């Protein structure tokens, strides 16, 4: 029997962020179901994917010449794509007619310019299936005329090894790529608010704010600006480009997790500036961290205020939450256990593979 082949094109692959993690996880499930995988990228990124995302593939993976980056004729593209049983791509706003047997377009960022439904684009994609990362993204692209299937990511079992016997350390963690555009993680706000929290409330003097995330060369200046902003506070630590193992250790130690994406943004005019889902808050919840998330974008899909975490819209709300929670150990334990159980029930690999099968493998 001829082996089935899946293909992937993601112009943002080298970012290795949450979106890349989800699309590569889908590829992982396909490999486990006997597909060979070919990725359109000019260098072999298997090791970077393993180191940053802890994703490896059960079967053959080939990194092949990127026909979408280099000039290729429509005839050549059509010939190459016709080999694939299932082809996936992440759009940068451009679309093309795919000759693959089934084509899936992955939607992470709810930015309208990426989903222009001109007559030509509708003709190119008339038989394609769109996949959204969250209900938030799904809702926005629906407004722009696109129906989609929802596939949430999964959280590694490594993060779920939590029970109440664990001793949490006085750490507030914030994780996310260091960049200032689109859905910026607003590490600058975390730095300022943490310093104020320590200054006004002595019970937080013992705490550290740890900010971890990927730093690309183009974002180095912004990263240095953040370090300068935090330079007067020795309780603020940076972990750029840390390994999967180090990140896992940070999550296990962390008492609180802050997520600031969307602050000061008009997310009705610019929905792309809110968090599209929030994989790092999910990881923190799995590890028993108490998530305090800015109430915008995909975060309210994950956090039920006062049950498995906390939502806030202002600095004062976050401050009150931190003060009240720090005083109430019993409530802390309830939140930690509820968050962990929520992730285990809804974001396990078993739940994920079942959903991938429903949307992709049975079609």
Distance between the termini: 19 Å
Strands, count: 13
Strand residues, percent: 15-25%
| Secondary-structure-derived class | alpha/beta
Helix content: 25-40%
Mean of residue pLDDT values:
94
Give the overall form: globular
What profile does the largest beta sheet have? 7 strands, parallel
**H-E order:** EHEHEHEEHEHEEHEHEHEHEHEHHH
CATH H level, superfamily name of the largest domain: Glycogen Phosphorylase B
The CATH topology of the largest domain: Rossmann fold
The CATH architecture name of the largest domain reads 3-Layer(aba) Sandwich
Describe the structure.
The longest helix is centred in the last third of the chain and has 18 residues, at 329-346. The chain has two domains: 5-154 and 349-361, 3-Layer(aba) Sandwich (Rossmann fold); 157-346, Glycogen Phosphorylase B (Rossmann fold). Helix 2 (46-53) links the parallel strand 2 (36-40) and strand 3. Strands 3-2-1-4-5-6-7 form a seven-stranded parallel β-sheet. The protein is globular, with a radius of gyration of 21 Å. It has helices at 18-32, 46-53, 74-81, 119-124, 135-143, 187-200, 220-229, 244-253, 279-286, 299-302, 315-327, 329-346, 349-361; strands at 5-9, 36-40, 61-64, 86-90, 102-107, 129-132, 149-150, 171-175, 208-213, 236-240, 256-259, 290-294, 310-312. The relative contact order is 0.12. It has 363 residues and is α/β, with parallel strands linked by helices. The model has no long low-confidence stretch (mean pLDDT 94).
